[in-house]
Amino acid sequence: MSCANIQVSETPLVLYALRRADDALILGHRLSEWCGHAPILEEDMALSNIALDLIGQARELYGYAAKSEGRDNDEDKLAYLRDVRQYRNLLLVEQPNGDFAHTMVRQFFYSAFADLYWRQMMSSRDATLAAIAAKSEKESAYHLRHASEWIIRLGDGTDESHRRAQAAIDHLWAFTGEMFAVDDGERALIHAGVAIDPGILRGRWLRTLSDVIDEATLSLPQNDWMQQGGRAGRHSEHLGHLLSELQSMQRTFPGLTW
Amino acid sequence: MTTPNTPLWEVFIRSRNGLAHKHVGSLHASDATMALQAARDIYTRRGEGLSIWVVPSTAITASDPAEKGMMFEPAESKIYRHPTFYEVPDEVGHM
Fold this sequence. Notes:
A: Ferritin; about 60% helix; B: about 20% helix
């Protein structure tokens, strides 16, 4: 294995799997950054568990992307040997951990979507994606519950925790629109019954958010301007730093295994 | 942050149907719901359980180690309380 970037033939199906794989890997990596640093030991374990769930999802999706592509790429090459512009994840998941409230709000926004998404994907006509969805759905359901309970306690906790939670919501809100966007390639997959239209999930996603955020005495922003670009490889400056750490071993010692 | 105000909880896990919940350890959490989540994340990572109980540690009344002579020694000399003097017929099988 060399340390040069690989090329990926992004057919619609490969790209579709890759995008979801990148979401899971990048968010999983972000959560792993808390390992040893979380506010309490109990939460350190919880965040690491969620990170491992997500990295597990990423592995299956990368494996499927590689198989669908049918060249000599594999899950490791897809994760370790693509550069920033080749990554297809949502901008939301690459946003830095910030304080604990930022991490929880990011997780809440994503998991509220992922829970609905994977449940819907269980009826995909693509047997592999349906199987990945069945496994991921249970994991995501717990991630959502975990994040929801924290949002309620942060919002309805102290003045400081409320202020920090609201600041995180206001900051991350503009990254949520991308979850519901669809391009032409995906539209064809939706039409074929392989993918689902995320647009149909938005109403339920908003209801989940409102229920929790109301109980937390927080509020959702009114503005609906949304940042886009992650799905096409246009990322915030944060992803490059993340990848330099995630990929450093393979880039420095090509083909390294342990 | 962990403060002295974060309550301590005792965690009990039932590993299989038909078995009793067993004490596995303790943890800190702000309330019962968070304690249950933390118990799931800390004590069932390797498929240890099908059911979790969390109990505030303050709800447990413990025997005093200094009284263990009075509490437990009298039982040690009563070997006839153990059901080891019976011949179990082979047909009974595992008891």
